[in-house]
Design a protein that fits this description.
The chain is an all-alpha fold. The chain has helices at residues 3-11, 28-92, 105-131, 141-148, 152-156. Helix 2 packs antiparallel against helix 3 (105-131). The longest helix has 65 residues, at 28-92. The radius of gyration is 35 Å and the shape is elongated.
């Protein structure tokens, strides 16, 4: 409206004009309901996708854990086979077996532990490199969540 009315409104002297009533059959609810229905459908779809993603993430973690355990078992099996081979070789020397110096069992076990630790370290490094999207050698919580899943916040502390 007029400049005098604008000044009066700004001083609080009179209330601003209200919107005229729409008597031509216009109903805000008829427009609002489809929008909220679409919003509910989108929200349900997002929840569904998030649930599927969480299930896939859990399955992936199970498979990774299974692969890690298999790797460790194979490393241990290799060491045991090397030990059996050394024992069979010593037995094959017959009376000359006293001349054969069998490998130190402690040394073999230490080597097996080193090999397992190295394999675990290599696996952890590859996961870190995959998760570090911006190559800054520091993981954000979002990047850490790719490795640790829901435990990312706990690991970050």
């Amino acid at each position: 409206g007029s400049p005098a009315r604008v000044r009066a409104i700004s001083r609080g002297a009179c209330a601003p004009p209200t919107a005229p009533a729409m008597d031509d059959g216009f109903n805000l609810r008829t427009l609002k309901d489809p929008v909220f229905e679409a919003y509910k459908q989108l929200e349900a779809e997002l929840v569904s996708r998030f649930t599927r993603l969480q299930a896939q993430r859990a399955e992936l973690h199970k498979r990774q854990e299974s692969a890690r355990r298999r790797r460790e078992e194979l490393i241990t099996l290799r060491v045991e086979l090397e030990h059996q081979h050394a024992a069979a070789k010593a037995a094959s020397y017959g009376i000359f077996a006293v001349c054969y110096r069998p490998p130190n069992m402690h040394a073999i076990e230490v080597e097996a532990r080193k090999a397992r630790r190295q394999e675990i370290a290599n696996h952890a490094m590859s996961l870190f490199e995959e998760a570090d999207v911006d190559d800054d050698r520091e993981l954000t919580v979002a990047e850490l969540r790719k490795i640790e899943g829901d435990n990312a916040e706990r690991v970050m502390r």
